[in-house]
Amino acid sequence: MRRFALFWILLSCLLGFLVWFFDANGHIMVHFGVISMMTPLWLFILVLCLICLCFAQVCKKIVTGAQKQMVEYSNKQSKMKKSDVDEALLLLFKTMTATTEGDLKIARSYLRNLKKIVGKGPISEVLELKILKGEKKFDEAEKLSLKLLQNKESELVGLKSLIETSSKKKEFEKALISANKAFETRQDLYWVLENTFRFRVLASDWTGALDVLEAGLKKKLIDKDKYAEFKGVTLYEIGLAERKEKGEIIFLKYLMQIRQLYPSFVPAALDLAMLYEKNGQVKQAQKVLREIWHINPTADVAKAYLKLFKEYSPIDRVQKMESFTLLNTIRPSLNNFLLAELDMKAKLYDKAHAEFEMFLINNPATKTIAKLMAQYEKEALKNSKAASDWIKREKNCEDDCLWVCTRCGEISSKWKPFCKKCGHVNPFEWVLCVNNKNK
Q1: Which residues contact 31 (CB under 8 A, 6 or more apart)?
Q2: What percent of the chain stands above pLDDT 90?
Q3: Which DSSP string corresponds to 37-82?
Q4: Where are the alpha helices (DSSP H) in 262-348?
Q5: Which of helix, strand or coil describes residue 35?
Q6: What's the pLDDT band for 4 if we cut at 50, 70, 90?
Q7: Which residues, 6+ apart, have CB-to-CB distance to 236 below 8 Å?
Q8: How much is the pTM?
Q9: Alpha-carbon torsion, ordered 132, 138, 139, 145, to 10 deg
Q10: 406: closest CA among 393, 397, 396, 415?
């Protein structure tokens, strides 16, 4: 401050000297109340500068004093809070633990005590949000989430909560709006990409879902295998949509791309084989079906392969299937299942019985097997009573040749790109028996 005052005095003197040098005879009339006087201009400049210096000094003292008071008050407040820091941290930890363990009443009591110390704010609101979700009070959780959206620092927390609450309420359109907003805000968070992809898929926005996948790969938030799987499913659905507008040639291009990207994807392989067969490329169709059968054997693949030999006799079809099943080492019971059915159609009863026995050693009786056993008892052994017993038993037998959601257990007769029950993408796996003992 002394340096500033000295600098200002020297500057005042310099200004006064310059005025005197250029206009030594210059005067100015000064009016102060009833007093009027003629003063040299250089002297007026010098005095004015000195008055400004004094005014600055007074202002500085006032500001400095106010700052000291604020610092003292802040220190006082800090000392007051420090005595409660340990207790607040302990309550925070207890609230989080109780919420995780599902002791929501205890969690609420801890939260009330925590609010008494830290007051209302983002921390207490986030904890409140977790408790509300645990209590399944999704409407209240949604309101609190909207409140968190108003604060820039807690915006993402609010968006994530809105996505979760909307999903729990099965309001997928609302969840998609929140997910899209989160995706516009941040693309470097896994949960943002995961939820945006999921809800775009549920809305059948396959092109938008593909954009999310590309962003995830670019940000290295999705591994290459999962990227290939989801991209294969996405391209398949895009191809199906474009097939209706642009024809089968464009669909064929998609299928060939999927074959390279996601070779174990059964629906795409079946459609590709069907298009080859339709165009007279039977050998190419056989090649595609052999490849997918070796990687991911299902009953649909076997049926598509047999369809290529529909003009063959039942015995010749059995021979074709016997050579085809040699490629399947993943699900040997499926081989027994298929050959037993074909043997019965060809009336090769001894071979059919051998396949039945092999199947039932490793699996429970399925509905199809029960029907075939009833047919075997009636036609081969002429045992009507045993045949009748198998028909009665069929009702309690396992379902066979189904697609099952690995997330929630939902059952479907056909593959679906997502599960409507749990909302997960490409969760369906083919099983021979729904209890999955054959795998």
Answers
A1: none
A2: 59
A3: EEEEHHHHHHHHHHHHHHHHHHHHHHHHHHHHHHHHHHHHHHHHHH
A4: 266-278, 282-295, 299-307, 314-325, 332-345
A5: strand
A6: low
A7: 254, 255, 258, 265, 267, 268, 417
A8: 0.74
A9: 70
A10: 415
